[in-house]
Amino acid sequence: MPVGTQKDYYAVLGVKRDAKPDEIRKAYRHLARKHHPDVNPGNKGAEEKFKQLSEAYEILSDEKKRKIYDQYGFYSDNLPPGGYGPGQGSAGSTHSAPPPVDFSGFDFSNMDEAGGNSGRSGGFGGGFRDIFSSIFSRGEREAASEEPEKGSDIESRMHLGFWDAIRGAQVRVTVTHEEACSTCHGTGTTPGPEVTCSTCGGTGKTNRQVGAMRFAMTCPQCGGTGKQRRPCPKCHGTGAIQTSETLTVRIPPGVDTGSRVRVPAKGNAGIHGGPPGDLYIVTEVEQHPVFERKGDNFYVKLPVTITEASLGAKVEVPTIDGLSTIKIPPGTQSGQKLRLRGKGAPSLRDSSGEVRGDEFVEVQVMVPRVADERTKEILRELARLNADDPRKDLKAAGAKP
């Protein structure tokens, strides 16, 4: 296995391994802006996080480097073109290890100056580890691109009553989102000429000395541009500020639990002057005691008497439009479903509101409570006149062969 620590760059950026280049770029820009040293002065943790983000983006944003990283679990400029060949091995491979890096000609005698651990038993200590860290990871990387980019979307959950969801409603909601800074207009910097980066002196590179070896790294302060602009004092270079806003939102008829209502341009502010993202209202709808909703359809249980089910009848059934009359065919059995077309919920796929689902009525035959001898006599007479055994199929299925 090649020397060096394997890093999960996808986890660093918070994206899936099959993420598209646009998803990787957006994730990096969002996190880089959050952890940039200018936004977090004196915060070593944020500075280290920014370095990790830049390192991960440098590898995953390059198609060739990402391909090597996906294959071997790490990336190094010392890999031969096209990766390791047969027999040279890779991370997780059963073949022999790759050819070692040639350090002949280098003086390791002053490792105390670099790592201060050469006196410990078991190796060169921190200085030696720094050498391999410099080889197998690229250190500081370029800062976030300054191209305008749309802001991120935000979500807000909203509880709705059943009838508000069916008929639609105007609701007021208060959301907290990022708004473009009024001082810098979303640029994150103060007006004025760019100045030479004080860290690299305008070269865009910084040198790192490890023993007798010197490495040129991209300047973490200016991202390799060699120029710096002063961060906006109001937003601290982010280009956005947190603000709360109360909005009136139109909820269209027919929303259900989990529906997403889009409110354009009410998400977080764009990056470097880009357009804002969108707000999505995610609805949670109360259940109704009678109407069970599945998609755009309603399901209602309808009790009927034995007489109505046997002889047929016209009975009233509730719908969201009021009572409707439904015909019960003669001989209807308990559990049988009847359909009322167009009596379901308005479909969100149709902006006119004219397309609706259906209502399915499940018949439930109710057995009367027998309280007198006359009723018992009538039922016995009915049993004699209708002598068919309703369980004969079950008996035939259970009979021994």
What does this entry look like structurally?
There is one protein chain. This protein has 10 helices and 15 strands. It is of the alpha+beta class. Helix content is 23%, strand content 24%. The radius of gyration is 36 Å and the shape is elongated. It has helices spanning 9-13, 21-35, 44-60, 63-72, 111-114, 126-136, 162-167, 306-311, 373-385, 392-398; strands spanning 154-160, 169-180, 195-196, 205-210, 213-218, 227-228, 240-251, 260-263, 279-285, 292-294, 297-305, 313-319, 322-328, 337-340, 359-366. Residues 85-145 have low confidence and may be disordered. It starts with 8 loop residues before the first helix and ends with a helix. The strands form 6 sheets. The protein has a 4-stranded mixed sheet.
Question: What are the main properties of this structure?
Answer:
401 residues; alpha+beta; four-stranded mixed β-sheet; three-stranded mixed β-sheet; 23% helix; 24% strand; elongated
Write a brief structural summary.
It is built from ten helices and 15 strands. It is of the alpha+beta class and 401 residues long.
Structural class: alpha+beta
Rounded to an integer in angstroms, the radius of gyration calculated over CA atoms is 36 Å
Unreliable segments of 5+ consecutive residues: 85-145
Helix tally equals 10
Assembly status: single chain
Helix content: 10-25%
What's the shape? elongated
Q: How many β-strand runs?
A: 15
**Which sheet architecture does the biggest sheet show?**
4 strands, mixed
Give the spatial strand order of the biggest sheet: 10-11-15-14
Q: Give the N-to-C terminal Cα separation.
A: 68 Å
- DSSP strand content: 15-25%
Mean pLDDT: 80
Order of helices and strands: HHHHHHEHEEEEEEEEEEHEEEEHH
